[in-house]
Amino acid sequence: MADSRLLPPQVSPPEFALSPALPHQVGGAEVWALPVLPGDDGPLLGPGADEAAERLGVDLLGALESARATGRAGELVTVPVVSDDVRLVVLVGVGDQSPTDLRRAGASLARALKDRASVVTTVASIAPDEALAAFVVGTMLGSFGFHWRSDGPAERPVGRVVLAGLPDAEERDEALARAIALGGAGWRSRMLASVPSNLKNPGWLAEQAREIGEAAGLEVTVWDEERLAAEGFGGILAVGAGSATPPRLVRMDYTPHGASRRTPTVALVGKGITFDTGGLDIKPPDNMLTMKRDMSGGAAVIATMAALRDVDCPVRVVGLVPMAENAIGGSSMRPGDVIRHYGGRTTEVTNTDAEGRLVMADAMAYAVREVEPDVLVDVATLTGAMKVALGLNTAGYFASHDGLAARFDAASAESGELVWRLPLVDDYRERITSKVADADNSAGSPMAITAAHFLEAFSGDLPWLHLDFASHAEAPADRHEWTQGPTGFGPRLLLAWLGSDDPLEGVV
Ligand code: BES
Ligand code: MN
Ligand code: ZN
């Protein structure tokens, strides 16, 4: 059995502080980072730059010219200095100073500051609260690292980031705290998705959910394989049947302060496949290689649940994560098997690699019957077809309700996690029919849509939204706030939605 004590300590995101002072007035920092704004007659330096140049006796504008800097978002000009005050000045392009550009500036700066102790920066001082938050999120997520080395992490995030030049520093506290909650949730889901599956089996992931959830003040319930069997979770059990490590179901309950009987409830269901071999319909090696992160939907739900209090979510939220390893063995489910889901619906398994919908179906049926939510949202790395449809920087979603889709689009735009709505084409609904069961789990093309139709049957006619981010779960390279590897996509979008003033406006 894998042992959780084997995973070495991981790096932490930088710490953040706010200050009204300018960099040259803040002692003891290793780096000063100053904003560069694009201008019609060449780039301009932002707050604190004149004072820094004077103190250090360097021509920072000249450095920009030598580097042919333009001020576009994330562009960096580094100026080493010999001074008792500071070692390095980094000039950071902030583009149009929108949240998107400041997120990118933050991520780019974070990469350049690996292994530095501290930075004082006025980049956030040019920006309103949303852009300050975006800069913090970008700086956090651009710093992300995961390792399992014998001699410690290859590099460490900058230790401390002072957001300087903010005369109203005290009023920015709330924006900073919210940003740290969002960035921290993205970090956490990326971390969970990065853990190799020789450690991350369903039991381990359920324990993580319990620890994380209880630390955040949530009520956490874990179903083991016996209770799953006793209560009829046939989909979760079938997918987990071939594994040496049995499946789990986790429920996490968040109740807002001052909740009454009229407070609405959102159910969030996340796919928690801790490894997807494909099962007996085995995946080829290239497709299997990254399947430790087939629990990314579950990670997004766990990380989101743990941050709801920090963003003052006004509605009840119940998170459900069915966890199983889709493995190969003598007790694996077979092509042609028929399984009975929670609540009684049956499915013919025509492809064991379409396992995500089998575990999601059980958890959704449970949500509809036992949680009785006002809105149901499910989040999964469900179909490789999403990569073909949308590429690797956009996730797809399906919604049974236009008002819910509108809330989701607004949250996406705010968070920078891109999504695109796809159609639940009526004409394709019949494709999921089976000769022997209520549905076929692998109805074929168009893959993402037939998968959505399969799940739709378990949504109980609720306002329902299905997010399929198989496209956006793995970054091929370091880019903007994404680091190469699992993305931890989802929590920023979900928290922007659930942390808004009225997440269910126009829905209930
Ligand atoms: N976990 C995969 C989907 C996936 C593919 C996620 C690529 C991320 C990257 C899912 O369980 C799967 O195998 N889906 C199959 C379904 C098919 C057999 C109907 C697919 O998309 O090929
Ligand atoms: Mn699969
Ligand atoms: Zn899968």
UniProtKB/TrEMBL annotation:
InterPro entries: Leucine_aapep/pepB, Macro_dom-like, Peptidase_M17_C, Peptidase_M17_leu_NH2_pept, Peptidase_M17_N
Main localization (coarse): cytoplasm
Protein name per Swiss-Prot or TrEMBL: Probable cytosol aminopeptidase
Gene Ontology CC terms: cytoplasm
PANTHER family: CYTOSOL AMINOPEPTIDASE (PTHR11963:SF23), LEUCINE AMINOPEPTIDASE-RELATED (PTHR11963)
Cofactor(s) this protein requires: Mn(2+)
Its biological purpose: Presumably involved in the processing and regular turnover of intracellular proteins. Catalyzes the removal of unsubstituted N-terminal amino acids from various peptides.
Sorted UniProt keywords: Aminopeptidase, Cytoplasm, Hydrolase, Manganese, Metal-binding, Protease
Pfam families from the UniProt entry: Peptidase_M17, Peptidase_M17_N
Gene Ontology biological-process annotations: proteolysis
Family: Belongs to the peptidase M17 family.
Reactions catalysed according to its record: Release of an N-terminal amino acid, preferentially leucine, but not glutamic or aspartic acids; Release of an N-terminal amino acid, Xaa-|-Yaa-, in which Xaa is preferably Leu, but may be other amino acids including Pro although not Arg or Lys, and Yaa may be Pro. Amino acid amides and methyl esters are also readily hydrolyzed, but rates on arylamides are exceedingly low
Active site residues according to the UniProt entry: K283, R357
Organism in which the protein naturally occurs: Nocardioides gansuensis
Residues noted as binding Mn(2+) 1 in the record, renumbered to the chain: D276, D353, E355
Record-annotated Cytosol aminopeptidase domain positions: 351-358
This enzyme's EC code(s): 3.4.11.1, 3.4.11.10
Bound cofactor: record note: Binds 2 manganese ions per subunit.
Lineage of the species this protein comes from: Bacteria, Bacillati, Actinomycetota, Actinomycetes, Propionibacteriales
Gene3D superfamilies in the cross-refs: Leucine Aminopeptidase, subunit E, domain 1, Zn peptidases
